[in-house]
Automatic annotation (TrEMBL):
This is Replication-associated protein ORF2/G2P domain-containing protein. Residues 80-182 form the Replication-associated protein ORF2/G2P domain. Pfam families: REP_ORF2-G2P. InterPro entries: ORF2/G2P_dom (IPR056906).
Amino acid sequence: MQYNQKRTYWTHKEEVQLYKIPIDTDRCSLAAKKQSAKTRTKYENMSLRDQIASDKRRKSYYEKRCHYLTDLSIHNRLYTFITLTFKEPITDYKQAQHEWDLFLKRLKYHLKKPIKYVACHEFQKKRGEVYHFHALTDIGYIGVKELEKIWGQGFVFIRQIESFHESSIKQIIYLFKYISKDIMDEEKTGKRNSARKIYCSRNLKKPTIKKEFSTESFEEIVFANMEHIIETGSYEMRNHQNLKINDVDFVKISRKE
């Protein structure tokens, strides 16, 4: 199958990507299998040049991931922001993750329903790389004292984000700055933390994606949606060796929730 247009439908916007060279899904699948079959060199065993290139790819991946998670949060109406801190400093990742998992179980039991969330952890450098968590959820408002009782490990912070508009996007993006911050810190020290950085519930609703071969031009799409354009632009697709493999034009169009 080949396609040169990809449309992603979110509740709040539509994204259209136009590829100069059509994408062949069979060829891409074969290339991915060949790449995955290769033995990866561990980061600490790479040359300095390869480490720098790997750092750039990793940073680029997480930047794109953060933008996707921002849209995913809006798409699922995750408008409750919470922060969970440990009264007794915890520096061990497995222990911190265990407490996070227990918190989710207690929260679900308290609310008597499944919950949706996107979360990440952050190090409190001033306390010696102590873990704490930030999350966007769909739980609505819960009193601070009540939430602290459910958490049971220390202090909490909770805030409602207003329904979708420009300022709410900035508030949601604020959550994911901690991920980029951790990556930048790792680049400075030359050491990578293998701990998971992002936590997402499995029940999150994903956007609808449509791929097709179309004769519709970039200009025609922009003209047809002139009053609702959020952003237009272009970028280069590159492979794992940083070689250019395609050119992509994109259009972002606003949609009412």
